[in-house]
Design a protein that fits this description.
The structure is a homodimer of 329-residue chains. Chain A is mainly alpha-helical and 329 residues long. The first copy, chain A, has a single domain, classed as Farnesyl Diphosphate Synthase, CATH 1.10.600.10. Chain A is built from 18 helices and two strands. In chain A, strands 1-2 form a two-stranded antiparallel sheet. In chain A, strand 1 and strand 2 form a beta hairpin. In chain A, helix 5 packs across helix 10, helix 5 packs antiparallel against helix 18 and helix 9 packs antiparallel against helix 10. Chain A is globular and about 60 Å long. The two termini of chain A are 22 Å apart.
Chain lengths: 329, 329
């Protein structure tokens, strides 16, 4: 299984769709352009803080793997990135984050008000683009996806403090919050290829997205600040409950459990307390269990790919799984 | 002209569409229902703080005035109210408002985070409802409208502090912020009646919406707290530039203008200073000029109604104009 062997580079994954992907930033610019100065200024900032374009890559790979890329796929790839951007702008505002992709966030650089309204602006631009799109399928898929993402955001508000937060709660949360958009991206990329291919790629995207989020949550327990650019244990510091902790808690004795509860009761836990709880979670196999879950999700996703014709794009979709579960930042 | 004579009651305006309007709250409930507890809780609060349903009334009157109401019009009326609600939830959050319709706002009762995410939730529910609607027209109209509203919100961020803010800026702002949704409501209500009726009602709604906002901004200079439930001069206190001020400034001598600039430079102007500036604006005819503008917009809107068949619904659309420019709260 490729996901177990060589580390995979983002550039490798993107190679089969490189040309189309390189057209996404201009398409994104076309969609969000505004002659109103304040919006234009925020747009420039957003276009500067380029992400990895992982979700547009999924749209294009799904298209390429199921018959080839058409010019409209570049538009859809840009719309998917735009929806992702809109949610990031609102997330940063809701979380009062000051940095994103190494650049100041919209709420930090402009204002909280500007961030809330710009999120709405970007989202409404995405909807208009989809309403004017020839095929109704992407609008149907993406309106459901954005709806699920808001439910995920809402569910995330409850993922704090309580050791009662279950793995089932966590699964529902990450499906809504992270997997829904990746699943939708793969689905609309494959839209010309018929229901069977669409269903496979939709499930692949769902499993990939869940693995992505689990791996991300594991990183918070394992990565050093020098690699990820954010301090280890940030989730714990904010009392956010994720899979490593959920998996470890049932294996703990009352004394260890009391240490976790102590952290959750502390509004500003010290570095020592956070480091201590990270050790306790790891010692009870929480990190390993979460890692295994990511690998398991990835293996399930690989099965969905087996029904696709053997192409460089299908190999790249395999590569996405390795990339997601092996990444270090 | 009816707008100059008898005061018109909301109940009078709503009489021709009363039965359909009474079905809107249940339809709204059906659309926003959620089995997730936190969303369900916020929904209950939103459904309790019933508004005047002025925008749903416009949808239904436009339908009734151009051929009659069908069951789907009740759905569209609910969607229009839902879009209005979503913007109120975000507005209150952006403005840190604590009261709305006499009830605590979502940001005050739950949290700022909840308000931002709930606004997104409500808006995404409205879009899903329109995507599943048989006729594509309401989705086309409402996606454009919600987009214009976000631009209006963004433009509003600039409507502060500067006496350079022009009447043209103000007109563009109120068209986007207020008139766009009322225009869209009338447009989709008339959607079965053909392009000529739709265009008339779209323009009627646009002019009505502008008159509505001008009258609202005049109230801030004239109404007493006991009537409106909010202190007079709130806009001035927050340095918000509206039509009465814009109209008065060119007529002022340098000393009076300096008093306005003094208020704008004062982060927390005293009650005396606000009352003083209100007097200055009134003395230079700013309030009268703005009132005249509202009456003029209303008269233009009445002309659009002349092309409609004489029905109680058309009379009620006339009544809406009187209601809007004569209201006291």
């Amino acid at each position: 299984m490729p996901s177990q062997t060589l580390p995979v580079d983002l550039a490798d994954i993107q190679r089969p769709v490189r040309d189309a992907l390189d057209r996404v930033p201009d398409e994104l610019r076309r969609i969000i352009v505004s002659d109103f100065s304040l919006i234009a200024e925020v747009n420039e900032h957003l276009l500067r803080m380029k992400g990895k374009f992982f979700r547009p890559t999924l749209v294009l790979l799904a298209a390429e793997a199921t018959g080839g890329i058409e010019p409209e796929d570049v538009t859809l790839a840009a719309v998917v990135e735009l929806i992702h951007l809109a949610t990031l702008v609102h997330d940063d505002s809701v979380d009062h984050s000051v940095l994103r992709r190494g650049e100041p966030t919209i709420n930090a650089l402009f204002s909280h008000q500007t961030a809330v309204i710009m999120g709405d602006y970007l989202y409404s631009r995405a909807i208009i683009e989809l309403v004017g799109f020839g095929d109704p399928v992407p609008l149907q898929v993406m309106s459901r996806v954005t709806h699920e993402m808001t439910i995920g955001e809402m569910r995330e508000l409850q993922a704090y403090d309580s050791l009662e937060y279950s793995e089932a709660d966590y699964d529902t949360l990450i499906q809504c919050k992270t997997a829904s958009l990746m699943s939708g991206a793969c689905d609309i990329g494959a839209r010309r290829a018929g229901d069977a291919f669409r269903a496979r790629l939709r499930r692949y995207g769902q499993l990939l997205g869940m693995a992505f989020q689990v791996a991300d949550d594991v990183l918070d327990y394992t990565a050093s600040e020098s690699v990820t650019g954010k301090p280890c244990g940030l989730d714990l510091r904010e009392h956010r409950i994720t899979l490593p902790l959920i998996a470890a808690v049932p294996r703990m004795n009352p004394a260890d459990r009391a240490r976790i509860e102590g952290l959750m009761a502390d509004p500003a836990p010290s570095d020592e307390l956070v480091a201590d709880v990270i050790r306790v979670v790891a010692a009870h196999g929480g990190v390993e269990a979460a890692r295994n879950r990511a690998v398991e999700l990835s293996a399930q996703a690989e099965q969905e790919l087996e029904g696709l014709p053997a192409t460089p794009a299908r190999d790249a979709l395999h590569g996405c799984l390795s990339y997601v579960i092996d990444r270090r930042s």
